[in-house]
Design a protein that fits this description.
This protein is mainly β. It has strands spanning 10-15, 22-26, 37-42, 47-54. A 4-stranded antiparallel β-sheet has the order 2-1-4-3, with no helix packed on it. This is Large ribosomal subunit protein bL33.
Length: 55
Amino acid sequence: MAKRNDIRPVIKLKSTAGTSYTYVTRKNRRNNPDRLVLRKFDPIARKHVDFREER
């Protein structure tokens, strides 16, 4: 049985390049209560762009 943890929820990171590409990751709500922004590679746009957390 999978362990369900509300402190480290699964979040989606959506590309800001206009493509619909997403990454899935986990984050710690205690350390990062704000929305997460990471600079990652978008294979559709073929460059590094900001990925913002969507809820």
